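Example complex used in Figure S2.
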Amino acid sequence: MKLTGETKFFLGIIIFTLFIVAIASITLSQPQKPLPKDQLVSSDASYRGPKDSANYLVEFSDFQCPACKAFSDEVDKLAIVYQDKLLIVFRHFPLPQHLESKRAAQIAESAGAQGKFWEMGKKLFENQSDLSEYRYASISSELDIDWKKIQEDLKSAKYLPKIETDVAYGNRIGIRATPTFYLNGIKLTVNTPEDLTKQVSKLLE
Amino acid sequence: MNNHTFKNLLINRLIFILSIFGIIMAIYVLQSFLRQTGVICLTGSGCEMVRKSSLSYIFGIPIPAFGLVGYSGLALLSFLKTIKLSAIYYQLFSKIMLGLAIFGVSFVSWFTYVELFIIKGVCMWCAISAVNMYMIFGLLLFSKLKNRL
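Predicted assembly (354 residues):
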């Protein structure tokens, strides 16, 4: 077998490619650096659990995302089981294809100002396929929340900058889907709600 | 070197480079399937939707693994065509490459349909890979027709 000039040219490309792949592999296999807590846990974000806890779980979520709904029960369970040692933080990441999610996020924030963020959030997830003005009003009435106040907040877009700040931060740290979880600053790889519980339990027990 | 040989040489080079490009893409996406991590995606959450879909696995094998095998085969064969071999082997390699490319375009077309109408999310890398495979197929077809004339 005789190597032609063309064969040598191809071999050069192969060697160059292997070199690039090797560098990329080394870069990708570097352990993830935890994100700073003061940035991930924004001061105005809704939270459950002890605020000064060393262990914190941050969720970027969208009230119209079916996967977020599937994970929400598991997050609620974690909030009960680890209520003394885990800080759970909710940050908004309404996806553009979910047309009602930004409004839902504002309603949750407005309900939060009346002390019922988590209750409203739970109801929004439960009714995510049927979110409308009528539904928001009925949920508010059910939770004994002042609907008129929420309407005022919506009209003035009082909480929109907060939601947009969350989205901008999410984009900056590379969030591309919801829900995305960070446990003690490290992005989690979770496919099922059970995966989330397993990873949190592994750290805390 | 006559014009005809030069064209064949150029086409083989292009196919080799496109196959290498396909291999790099397939490795990048495959690692995200194996490590369950995200990839850079300009089509919003499309890549994540596709990665998390059960339709992105055939008999438990992630789709990019098929791409990796296909592109590696094409790259290997185009490489072997540069070695001085008898005309029979050259013809045989060309036929196998065309066969691989036909399978490749059928595969990417089917998966693009699955993405658009079943998963309802488009993965940027799958779309680029589909265009890449169509280009390889086009070049092989062009080369085959030219050599017939």
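Residues 6 and 195 of chain A are 51 Å apart (CA to CA). Chain A has a mean pLDDT of 92.
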